[in-house]
Amino acid sequence: MNQARRTRPAPDFLTRAHDPRDPSPWLALYLDQSTPLPDPVKAAWLADSSSVSRQFLLPFVRPLARAFIVLIQVVKLLLPKHWAASRKLHWLLAEGMKRFVSPEANWLVLRHFTLGAQILEFIARNSPIPVDTSPITPVALDELKDELFLKHDLNLFNFVIRLNQALRDGNQSLGLVAQPDFSMITEPAVRLDTMPDSTLNFMDLQTAIECFTPIYQLFLTDNDFWRAANSLQLDETIGIYAATILGAPQHLILLNNKHPLVPMSTLRAGYRLVLHGLSTEMLHALLMRMKVAQMGARSEAGEDGAP
Length: 307
What we know:
This protein is mostly helical. 58% of the residues lie in helices and 0% in strands. It has helices at residues 12-15, 25-31, 39-49, 52-75, 86-100, 103-125, 148-169, 205-219, 222-230, 235-246, 269-304. The longest helix has 36 residues, at 269-304.
């Protein structure tokens, strides 16, 4: 199945002439620079958000998906406590994404794994007591079948535990780093033009997440599903770690997925997953900007000090 490698047309809001009497809200969001996203990512995000699927399908899918979450919770009372089928789940997710999800949405999902891995490695290397990370960097949807969604959640909690246990044992804490190590912050290798792009690949990111969340719940144990849903509240935690290292607390305003100590209902997991993805994109973009600025400053210093 290879409908990929076709050039994606530019989003309509970028090709249509600006009409002051009927301005495009999507063009305004694209041109706005208060949200730190690279132009290709912002274009893909807004093209996905302005799609027909997002406008007309999501309002019907979201309440049905939340009703299924409640129903599945009742059904699972009758199943063995530790019943799960993680590999089957990930096969269904990967095949569903290949067949029905838009290229932009699939690209953003695959990018997310690599961006998250790089952010954790940035924190780990700039900690006073460095710790190991377990990076996940898929470039193709079939790689998701290796239980990558589950591993992604496990990696996040394991990282927070390892980092803070090491800091406690060493009587240390994260602090401002004058010259942070940005070497791990790079553009992901996954490409938009390699994503499946058939007629059926129409579903936007938010609708796809709402559809897949009840399936995720059904095929995992309650503990795995609860942990996955509540991993989203670590967005602020990871943001605080990065802001502490950078001495840039103002960037935390872009992270908003509720307080990590107040678990939320799993009914809103789909919506919060979208916030999680956007928060990761923006934090990575900020780190990339700072890396470029650091390289520029070092280059100028080298030139100034040259004989």
